[in-house]
Amino acid sequence: DSAHMPLYAFCINSIFFFLLLSVLHAEAKELKQVLVIYSQDKWHPAHEITEKGFRSVLNSNFEFDIRLYVEYLDLANFSSPAQQKVAAEYIRKKYSGLQLDSIVTVYDTALYFAVNEGDPLLPGVPIIASQLSWKTGELLDSSPLHDSITGTIVGENITSLMQDVFKLFPRTENIAFICGSSLSDQDSDILFRKEIASYKDKI
Fold first, then answer.
1. Phi/psi zone of residue 119: left (φ > 0), alpha (ψ -120 to 50 degrees), beta?
2. Helix, strand, or coil here: 97?
3. Phi and psi torsions of 197, nearest 5°
């Protein structure tokens, strides 16, 4: 009997091996490669929240194995055309050997960077634009790149905010509006001022 043990063990191990292969094959998921481009630097508070949201959704995905590549443009500090040209060339060369399935842009400025005035950063790669302003969304409708871009638009609900202000502080007469200088901030500035104008009899 002992002489036949090696053959018996070999058979058992072989069966186990083929069963393992079948399980691994069944669990194997198609690889999708996604480049995420953030408008600002890595330490921007909103970017951290957005990234947590991305990863939470991806971790619940059972259909694909998604590999994320992340780039931070830091356009608040490096916004000149020459600097953006260098950043674009760097990204083109860095990802030229990869088969990217999509690009995710966070905020308007990252989208403008990716579409590059009609000369896409990575031609042929569809773009998912996250957290766009209404103005940018309207511009996309008439863009020749419209068919290769989809995304989400962030609503600016200043009306509810103003109602809360007067509810908490009925005697409010002056409001200071603090806004950034990015393209998305400029869009928000226009929309907020338009909404606030309806309260001109109070402030």
1. beta
2. coil
3. -60, -25
With CA atoms as reference, report the closest residue to 130 among 32, 33, 34, 37: 37
Asked if 106 and 39 touch (Cβ cutoff 8 Å), the reply is yes
Q: In degrees rounded to 5, what are phi and psi of residue 104?
A: -110, 120
Query: 164-170: long-range contacts (C-beta < 8 A, 24 or more apart)?
Result: 166/202
Statement: residue 159 has pLDDT above 80 = no
pLDDT in tens, 28-61: 678 889 999 998 888 877 777 788 877 787 777 7
Residue 73: per-residue pLDDT: 92
Residues 6+ apart with CB under 8 A from 165: 172, 175
Please give the biggest Cα pair distance in the chain. Answer: 100
**Lowest-confidence region among 103-107, 167-171, 175-179:** 175-179
> Cα–Cα distances in Å, from 123 out to 74, 119, 194?
23, 8, 37
- Do 148 and 126 meet the contact criterion of CB atoms below 8 Å apart? yes
In the sheet that 30-38 helps form, which strands lie side by side, from edge to edge?
Answer: 64-72, 30-38, 102-106, 127-132, 149-153
